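If your schedule permits, I should be very grateful for your opinion on a structural question. I have a record of one protein: its chain in single-letter code and its fold written as discrete structure tokens. Kindly check, if you would, that the fold set down in the tokens agrees with what the sequence suggests. I remain grateful for any guidance, and I place the record below:

***
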Amino acid sequence: MEKMSNPTCFALLLMAVIAHVCGEFIQPPPFLALRSFAGEETRLPCEFKPQDGDRVIQVTWSTEKNNGVKEQIITRHMTEGLQEFPNFAGRVRFASSDPIKESTLLILNTKESDQATYTCHISTFPSGNFERQIIITVWRIPISTLEPVILQEGQSFKVAATCRAIGLPPPRLSWDTDVPGQIQNRSSEDRVITSQYFLHPLRSMNGRKLDCLVWHPALAQPHRLSNLLVVHFPPDAVISGYDQNWSINRQGAELKCEGVGNPQPHNFTWTRKGGSLPKEVSLEGNRLIFTRPLNKTDEGVYECEARNTVGSVKAEVNIQISVNEASRLEASFNNLLLIIVGGAAGAVIVVMTIIILMVTCHHKRRTRKLKRELSEKKDEINNLSRQTSMRRLNSVSTDPRIQTEESTLIGMDSPIKSSVFSLEENSIICERRDGYKEVDYDSLGRPAIYPSYHAERASMRRKESEVEKQDRAQRVASFIKNSNMTLDVDFCRDQTPPPLSVCSGTSRDGGTEKDLWGQREGMPEGEEGDCTSGSHQLSEALQNHFHYSNGFLRPKPHPNSILLHPHSQVI
């Protein structure tokens, strides 16, 4: 400042004098440029200290865009209070509760459109108005994304990855990789920066680095978006596990199919050329396990097919199984043992077959012998029965007592032989009380038609010896005793025609009747008493086995009875 008349120097001096005399801004300084970030809070300082005698009446904040458009933000009057303008309502406020003393402004959520020049206007009385300006630059920290692409071997030149970023000022993008390719950058109207990396995919590129770098002035160093290339390709199958030294009876043998591909093979199929897989092998994923000792039949060409989403590939191995000396000896021993066991089993079967045939023949001979003996016994029994029947038929007597004994013997003997023979002859001679003559009756109780036949038979009976009569009487008495049968004495008394007296008793006129069953000429008196007791039993037997109907004595029906005619013959 060489001359006081210089207008510029004079103006500065005047302002300094006025500020010294009327008051001053404590903050901000005369020129202040601030940097803010979108989405964050921005603080605009403003504090004025008036001189003695001055008083701040109103504080006003306003903004001026780069295009020259001015707009008020907020006002605080000493008496009229606070006023927010529509475009900034709810987004700004004073930092202090007393804006008259502390007028700092806060922008709560800074936008990119908030980049402008802001003015703090102080109105005092009586000194006048004072202003201070702040330039705000709004930055946006870049937002970036990386979109990788899954490649497949054999495809043409194509995009491997795309990197995008948006910021204020606009960021710059670059790639960090050792994979050869081309970069293409572009920007859109909405200030989004895009960069793409093109290459020709090969399986050797799978897993290689392809990073995107985002450069921005708000960042101390570039932001790195890490990425690894993904290239899909069919698998490569390799079979392992066969060491060219497999032999018979080897334990724990297995084959493994190792497939190298992207993605890793997830499906493995085992086959054997010229036939099916051996028995007793298990498949576990990519492994083929022999769960038994190896044998010669396990030889062959084994093939494994590995498959993923891209394709499939096959691998094969030729398995050769050698026969060592120990295996050969063991096989010979096993064959010999098998032959021995088979021969022993065959011999046992032959012996058992012979034994079974011998036993069968023996039982057949014995059965035929028993049948023959049984037939002979039957013939013998039939002959004996026939002889007995003939003897009984030929031993008929006209003696009523003997006749009754024979009839009782025949009747009582039938249950024992399971067939009842009817009485051969029931000619009973009873003496009636009115003096009738003796009358002969046939086996059905009717008068005899052939008296000469009965007379002949009666004469035959009288010719029997006394010994045979006694023997017959004893047999009758024994049979009746064993059969628990009694003879009703009054059997003939209640019948019509007049009853026959079968034992000794008193006649109607008081005389003694002649006993037909009792004592005969030449019979001892002791035997006559036996007749009396036996006659009662015989009478009861007759009553149980015979009935009197229409003047005839008839045998009672029996399910097993066999009626014999007097002239019939037993065969």
Remarks:
- The chain has five domains: 17-139, 149-228, 233-323, 325-388, 395-562.
- The longest strand covers residues 128-148.
